[in-house]
Hints:
Chain A is α+β, with helices and mostly antiparallel strands and about 850 residues long. Chain A folds into three domains: about 45-150 and about 215-260 and about 270-300, Alpha-Beta Complex (Aldehyde Oxidoreductase, domain 3), CATH 3.90.1170.50; about 180-210 and about 305-480 and about 655-820, 2-Layer Sandwich (Aldehyde Oxidoreductase, domain 4); about 495-645, Aldehyde Oxidoreductase, domain 4 (2-Layer Sandwich). Chain A is about 25% helix and about 25% strand. Chain A has 22 helices and 31 strands. In chain A, the strands form seven sheets. Chain A has an eight-stranded mixed β-sheet with strand order 4-6-2-13-10-11-12-23, sandwiched between helices. Chain A has a six-stranded mixed β-sheet with strand order 8-16-15-14-9-31. In chain A, helix 19 (about 700-720) packs across helix 20. In chain A, about 60% of the residues are buried. Chain B has about 150 residues and is α+β, with helices and mostly antiparallel strands. Chain B is about 30% helix and about 50% strand. Chain B has a seven-stranded antiparallel β-sheet with strand order 1-7-6-5-4-3-2. In chain B, helix 1 (about 15-20) packs across helix 4. Chain B is globular. The interface of A and B includes residues 60, 297, 730, 733 and 739 of A.
Amino acid sequence: MTETTTVSPAQPLVVEEGEAQRGFIGTNVPRKEDKRLVQGQGVFFDDVKRHEMGFVHFVRSPYAHARIKHVDVSKALELDGVYGTLTGDEVAILTDPFFELSTPPGAHIKDYAIAVGSARHVGDPVAAVVARTRELARDASELVEVEYEPLPHVLDGEEALKDEVILHEDAGSNTVWSGVFDWGDFDAAVAEADHVVKIDRLHFDRFSSTPLECAGVLVEYNRGTGQWTLYGNHQMPGVGAIWMAPALRVGLDKLRFVSQDIGGGFGNKITLHPQFTACCLLARKLNRPVQWTEWRTDQHTANTHGNERTFLDVTVPVKADGTMLGFSVRAVDDCGAFPRYEPLGCIIWAQVTPGCYRWRNVRVDFTQVCTNKSPVAPNRGYSRMQHLWLTERIIDIVSQELGLDPVAVRKKNYVKHEEFPYETPNGCIYDSGDYARCLDVALELIGYDKIEERRVDAEARGKLLGFGIGSTLDSGTNNFGQSMILNPELQFSGNNEVATVKLDIFGEVVVTLGTVPQGQGHETTTAQVVADILGCTPDDVHVRAGHDSYWNSHAGFSGTYASQFAVTGLGAVKGAAEKLAVEMKQLAGAVFGGAPPEAIELAEGHARIKDNPEAALPFMALGAILNANNAGLPEDLDITLNVRYVYRPPFQKPDLERKYGNLTLTYATQVHACIVEIDPETGVYEIVDYAAVDDCGKRIHPQIVEGQVHGATAHGLGAATHEVFTYDADGNLLTPNFYDYHVPHALDMPPMRNGFIESESPFTPLGAKGMGEGGGAGIHAVCAALQDALGRRGEGPIVWRSCNPYHRVWDLLQSPQESRNFVTVESR
Amino acid sequence: MRVEGEKEFQAPVETVWEVLNDPSKMAKTMPGIESFDIQDDTHWRASVKVPLGLGGLKMSIDFEKTEERENEFAKLHAKGNGVGAIMNMDTAFHLSGDGDSTHMKWEADVNILGPVASMGQRVLQPIVNQQVTQVLSALDQQVQDAKAE
């Protein structure tokens, strides 16, 4: 295990294009994708057009909950240029409900491509119209007459638990899934504690990702073969097909998913199967290609949101010296109108059960419910972010209430560097890391030694200064076996990813990935790995852009999600390149008259005899010999120079009884530090300094890592300060576009310093860890800084929500007792 | 959203009552009205174009008089259907006369659903206020015209 610490911008070497040397891994080679992207030559789904195609527009419910009594599309169909429509009644006949992952009651929910019987949130699609232009389709949709019978609705997770209003009559309850997780001996920990801190309520607000490119797809139906081709931006098509094919009553191979460039995903392009299924039905019904391009307002209103979670009755046993023994909590997770990818969020948080801490006694009573709001889906840091916000809030609230230093408390409770690999109370194995060192780097970057002087200076200017830390884990490469903890009937476990590498006839190295890149630089980092293994340059490696399931280079879990490309994607690339290298050496040995492969080396684009570098065959010769000039090669030379490798992480199935096992392979670390200044007169605050330290093991391409850190930080800061999906009492989303939903832009970002540590993972092929989701460290750091600024020991309000726009800070300043009442301390 | 107010008319209460209960006269008080059909004594239908954003919001509104006490009180329910919006309104007015003048107290509970309610949240209240001002001004004119007849 090696470690380095670097602090940007003193970044190392940038390798010039075409430069021939080994050791590309770890350097900032030019990104292969950037030329086409900055020149506007990327191909996104909306760039794909077909002759006579039609454009889809969805008619959406204005009610949060209503029975659909009648849908009349006749007036829309009379409009010149309208090709056709689709209604819920048709969908109910032509498809089966999508597969549900939950046990009952969630298992009984019926979810279709278009609302059948009832609309369950504002924006729920109730019909679709296809027309000659996108604008005409939208105009025609206004002629669709829908008769609704309004029903009572429920917008709050805790209210939904009462089942006074039920969304899904088939399920008979709003509860999707519930269960208790109990590890260690929490009651004994409470008995042993010197203090017990109780926090009645914390709330993680609803927000999401807002990718530059909204969702969409162009669907072609081949009547001769019964196959659909979907040029879309689904970021996990393998799983998308598992949902769609049974619903459409066809085999998986009838669905071909294609994408080249995707303008961001962040998780909310994982559950596009309802919209894609509607488009498949329309393409078949109308016998013409159809394209659906989501409007931004639809993206906000009815695509997906991140999980909203309320934490109740948090109890934390603490020793006199600040050692925390664990916690218990009752969590209510609001997944909106349909579970879709849920209830996986009910277990995925458990990947990081104790956060960064050595807590051995944890009890979590977890319930997920439906409400009449947009459905949720994985959102950058999915489910772990909400939980890590809880663990960080625990640290800061407990520290404040007991008069302890949050820096010292963190260091006391962090998992120690020498304890790695560290097994958590629920059997997850934290692979490597040095949290205390990351914190030290963050403190140094932000100038923590001067914090008290800055506090005095701010006070002199009439400002309240606060300092906060967010220390999180980005768990990556998940073990799908965790789904069986929720539903033992599910037959999912492990993980996999595919790559193929071939040496073509002119000596080109061609790589095909199973992943679905959305801007993460897969082509670049793949080329780095292959170049190092084959002894050529990244320029010699052609990585096919995007994903096509007809390439036959994908597996069941292929996709880009859950912080794993550096492990599963590059693990597959490494495996395939190594197999190809073996074959190239075998072929060269045969050509050289029977030299053993171990006598051959690959270097500088040649296969050559180690002891006689003059005896060298260029890659072009190897490609040409096997593919086009192979007469006379030994009969037992069983090679193809076209290899496919499936990387499977070393996972076991979890112990379902104990809800115990290794749920994910790697744990990247983020420690963020933040300084805010609040104007106590108005509640307006500014993030005046920020530091982010990341440890994702071996960095394949440091600049890509730094870019991901910047993005995740901006996303977290947006969620901490402004980004929130707010509904009115009728279930109307009040933040349906960028006018009301403020995503930070460059000028909103605080001055940021970055630091990096490399604690290589002992479990992964390259020592790298997945990263990029960031664990929401920015949210936690801002909340902690606001808490620090607003109240010292035993005074001031409690920051109990994850999103704190200025008006909430104002409320906290005006009514500190309201939130303070949430916290009690019992000392013995 | 709830709006309410009071207004004085320089006309006897019977005249004000007559105007308020004459759909054809009331139709003339409604801004953006495109058509008005009287179905029976208590049911009317109007097509209006509410000035909301570019092009306005077309809405078909069904009115139903649900309660009345002559010269004193009336209550109406209105349900509007438009593209991206559904409106429900309950409105009531109370009259009290004093010779040649009439005092009217009114209130309305307006509920708007759908994307318009989401996207138009910042402009709905001022638009409703503007519409009310126009209606009351036009109503005053109708009352004065009726008084002169």
